[in-house]
Amino acid sequence: MDAHQRAKLDEYVDPEFIDSSAGVFPLTIIMSFLVVFATIAILWWAKIRSRASRRGECLLLCGISNAGKTLLFSRLTMGVAKRTLTSMAVNRGSMTLENSSSDRPAKKVRVIDVPGNLRIRQRDFNSEKASAKAIIFVIDSTTINKDSKDVSDYLYDILREKTFRQQRLPLLIFCNKQDLNNDNETTQSIRQLLENELTMKRKTRTSSVAVHQGKAESADDIGRAGKDTFEFSDVKDLQIEFVDGSSLGAEKKSYAKHYDDIDEDDIISTGDETDAESGANLTKVYDWIEKIWIK
Amino acid sequence: MLDFFYILTKGGFVLWCVPSSATEFIKTINDAIDKAVLQGQGAGQKWVAQLTSHHIHYKLDNEFELVFVLGYQKTLNISYADKFLDEIQKRFRDLYKDDLRTGNFTRAFAFREVYEKSLKETEDAEDEMKKIRRLPRSYEESDKKLKTVKIVTKKGDKTAEENKPKKPKVMKSSSKPSVASNQKAPVLEEEEEDDENVEEEQDVEDQDENNGQEDKSDEVVSDDAMMNEDESNRLPLEPVQPTALSNMQKLQALGKLPGPRSKGAPATKTPGKQDKDKPKGKKMAVSLKPNISDTNGLDYTKKVDIKKEEQERTTVAAPLAARPEGGDLKTMAVESTGLASGLVDGFWSKLKKVNVFASKTLTAEDLRTGIETMREHLIAKNVAADVAEKICESVTDKLAGKTLGSFESLTSNIRQAMRETLMMILTPKRRIDILRDVVDAQKARRPYVITFCGVNGVGKSTNLAKVTYWLSGNNLRVLIAGCDTFRAGAIEQLLTHVRHLNNIFTEKNMPMIELYQRGYGKDAAGIAAEAINYAKDKKFDVVLIDTAGRMQNDEPLMAALAKLIHVNNPDLVLFVGEALVGNEAVDQVTKFNQALIDHAGLQTNPRVIDGIVLTKFDTIDDKVGAAISMTYTTDKPIVFVGIGQKYQDLKTINADVVTEALLK
C-alpha cells in the first residue's frame, strides 16, 4: 500500500513539477517577445510621427537656376539678404510666423530650397516633394522671355504631379526681381506667356518619343481635358496664385525677430547685405504664407 | 594676383569673399560650379573657364558642406593655388568650427586679415622654393637611378611587382608566346609558393628544355649580375651606362630582341664585361640575391604584406603570363565573376573595418580600395577607361572628409555617391525638345534642319528613317536630304524608306515625306543647301540630312563634314554612335568635336555636336557604359536611343535604368 501510494504520489508530483517548470519557461519567452514588440512598436510610432510632423509643414521653394530661390530662402528664414551663388545642395531652414492678431504661439514653418540646376533638380525635387505642404515657384521676371521653355517645363512637371493634385496643394507663382528693370514683365503678361507655353508643352510632351523601359505613365493631363489651350483658371486640383515682388526688398518684418541680435554694422561691413530700397518687397508672399499656415 | 576667392556653402550662401563688392565673376563661378563640381568634370579640382579666361581651382569640404573657390587669369601661372586652398580651408575651419557646425551662417566672418596673412605666407614660401630649385639635381636624387631597376619589372606594374619571384620565368615565357606559356603554366604555379627555390626549379626545368631557353636563363642571370655590378660601381658621373643597361633590360623584358637569344650567343648583345660572369651561370643568381642592397625591384622578400584582396583578385592589367591560370580562359571566366562578387566580399571585409558604433571620418585612403573596385566594375561595363578614372576621382572628392554616421557602411556610401554622379552625368544640362523647336521654326517660316553624322556603320540611315517615322506621326512634313554621295546604294536605301513611310502615312493628299537627292559623287554641302532651299519653298517642316560615314581621323572627310555644317548651319547636329563601342567612343566624339571647331573658318561661334543618338542599344545587355563615355566627353544629352531595327524602335534614354544597370 505504502509503496503503491508512494508510487502514486510520485506520479502525482512529477507532472506538477514538470508543469511548473514548463510554466515558467514559456512565460519568459512570452515576456521577452512582448518587450521586443513593444520596443519596435514605439520606435515605429515615433518614426511615423516625426515623418508626419514633417509632412504637413514644409514650404518648398522651386524654380529654375538663377530665379532667386536661395535669396528668398535667406530672407524668409534669416531675415537678411545674403549674397548667393548657384546652390548645389538643398537648403533647409525654418521661419517663425508671428501671429499679430491672436495670442496663439508663433507657428514655425519649415522651408526647403530645392536647387534649380537641371542635373540635381530631379533627384532633390523627388526626395523633397513628399514633405510639401505648399510650393512657391520663383520666376525671374527679367529673363522670362528667354527662359520660358525651361520654366514651363518645370511648371509642367509640378502641375502633373499626382500627390500634389490629390492634396490640393497651394502653389504660389512668384514673379521675382521686379525691382531690377522698369520694363520687365508684369504678372499678367507672365501668366499669359506661361499659359501659351504650357499649351504647347501639353502637345509636345504627349507626342514625344517614349522613355526606354520607363514606367507606363498615365497621361495625367493638366487643365481641362477637351480644351485646346491651357489656362491656369482651369486647374482645379491646385490652388494657384500669382504675385510679384522682389527678394531684395529691404523691409524686415517681424518674422525675423529671433535673428535681431545681428548687428547692423557686422552685416554691412562684409558687404553681404545688399541694400535695395525700392518699393517691391515680399509683403504679398508673407501674406500668402500666413493665409496657408494660419487658417 | 588672384582675381577672386569665395567661400560658400553647398546650399549657395556666400560666407566670405574677396573682392567683397564685385559681381562680375558671379557668372564665371556659377558656370564652373555647374560643370566642375556637379558633373564631375573638374579633373583634380581644377577648371579652366572657357569664356572668361580664368583658371579656377576649387576644393570641397564635405564635413561642413563648404566649397572654397579661387580664380586667376589664365595668363598667370600661380603654382601655389592648391596649397593655398588647403591652407585657407584649414584656417577657416579652425576659426569658425562651432558656427559651421550649428549652421549659423548669418554671422559676419571677419576673415580678411587671416586671409591676407596666409596669402603673404604662401607667396613667400613659393618664392623661397623657386630660389632653391635653381640647382640641378644630383644623380642620387634623379629618377633615372630608380628607373634602372624598375624598368625590369614591366614598367612598374604593381601586380608584376608582386609576382617578382616569377620574374625570370616571366621574361622567358613572354618571349616565346603561346606554345611555351602553356607548358610553363604548371611551373609558374609551383613557383608562387617558394621564393627561395626559384632558381633551383629553374635549373630542373631547363634541363628538359632546349638550348635556347637555357641560354636565356643565362642571359637573365647575367643581366642580374650586370646590374649588381653597376650598383656597386655607382658613380654619379656615369649616367650613360645605366641607361644603356635599362634599354637593354627593357627590350629583353618585353622579349622583343630577336635572334641572339635563340642562338645562345650572349656576348653579341651585351657589353663585354659580361663574359667573365657567364661560366658561373645559374649559381651566380642565387648568391647574388643577398648582396643586392638597395635595388628595390630585386627584393623578393618584402612583398608579403600586400593587401590580401589584391592577391586574391587578379586585375585586368596583369600581364597574361603572370596570371596563375596562365591564359586559360575557363579559369579567367571564373575570375571575372570574382570581380563582381569582390564587391560583396569587399563589403563584408569593410564592415569589419568600419567602426560600427562611432562616427568615422572618411579619408582618401579608406576610399581607395572601394573606389578601385568601382572603377574596374565600370570598365567591365564598357565605360571608357579614362572616363571611369575621372568619375572615380570626382566620387573620391565628394566623399573625402565626410563623416560616416554609425551603422553606415563605406560601400553603401560609395555606391550612393557613384549613383548620384552617374545620374548627374546622364541628366542633360538643357532638355532638347525637338517638337517644341519645330514650332518655333514654323513660326519663323523656315524648316527645322537636323544633321546626322558619325563613323561608318553605326546606323545613321536607319535611325534617320525612325526619326522620320516619328515626325510624320506628329503630322510634320519631312524632307530627307541624301547627302551621302559616296556609299553605294545610299540613295536607293533612302528612297525605299520614303516609299514605305509614305505608304504608312497616306492621309493627306500630298506626300508627307520626300527625298531630295542629286545622285552620287557630288558635293554634300551643296546638296544640303539646295535641299534646305527646296524645303523652304515647298513648306516642309523638317529637313533631315543624312551624311556619309567617316572615320574620325580622316582629315579631308572631317573637313568636308565641317564645311557642310558651317555652311548650312543646321538647328541640330546629332552624332550617331553605337552602344557597342568601348574606349573608341571617347576618341570618336572628341575628334568629331575638334574637327568641327578647327575647320570652322571665320566663324566666332563654331558649331559642335548638339546631341547624341545611341544606336544598337538592344544588342548590349547591361554593358551600357558607352552612354556614360559619350555624355561625359561631350557634355551633351543623349537625344534618342535606338533599340531595334524597325521604325518604332526609337526611344529616349532612361537614366535610372542605365544607372542601375551600371551599378549592378
TrEMBL record, chain A:
UniProt family annotation: Belongs to the SRP receptor beta subunit family.
Signal sequence extent: none
Location of this chain's protein in the cell: Endoplasmic reticulum membrane
Protein topology in the membrane: Single-pass membrane protein
Main location: endoplasmic reticulum
A Pfam family: SRPRB
Residue stretches spanning the membrane: 24-46
GO biological process: Golgi to plasma membrane protein transport; intracellular protein transport; protein localization to Golgi apparatus
Keywords associated with the record: Endoplasmic reticulum, GTP-binding, Membrane, Nucleotide-binding, Receptor, Transmembrane, Transmembrane helix
GO CC field: endoplasmic reticulum membrane; Golgi apparatus
UniProt-recorded name of the protein: Signal recognition particle receptor subunit beta
GO molecular function, one term: GTP binding
Organism classification: Eukaryota, Metazoa, Spiralia, Gnathifera, Rotifera
TrEMBL record, chain B:
Protein's membrane topology: Peripheral membrane protein
Source species: Adineta ricciae (Rotifer)
Chain intervals for the UniProt region annotation (Disordered): 150-284
Protein name: SRP54-type proteins GTP-binding domain-containing protein
Coiled-coil residue windows: none
Biased composition (Acidic residues): 188-212, 220-230
Keyword entries, A-Z: Endoplasmic reticulum, GTP-binding, Membrane, Nucleotide-binding, Receptor
Entry superkingdom: Eukaryota
All copies of domain SRP54-type proteins GTP-binding, residue ranges: 637-650
Biased composition (Basic and acidic residues): 154-165
One Pfam short name: SRP54
PROSITE patterns on file: SRP54 (PS00300)
InterPro entries given in the database record: AAA+_ATPase (IPR003593), Longin-like_dom_sf (IPR011012), P-loop_NTPase (IPR027417), Sig_recog_particle_rcpt_asu_N (IPR007222), Signal_recog_particl_SRP54_hlx (IPR013822), SRP/SRP_N (IPR036225), SRP54_GTPase_dom (IPR000897), SRP54_N_sf (IPR042101)
Localization of this protein: Endoplasmic reticulum membrane
GO BP term, example: intracellular protein transport
Entry similarity comment: Belongs to the GTP-binding SRP family.
Gene Ontology CC entries for this record: signal recognition particle receptor complex
Major location (coarse): endoplasmic reticulum
One example GO MF annotation: GTP binding
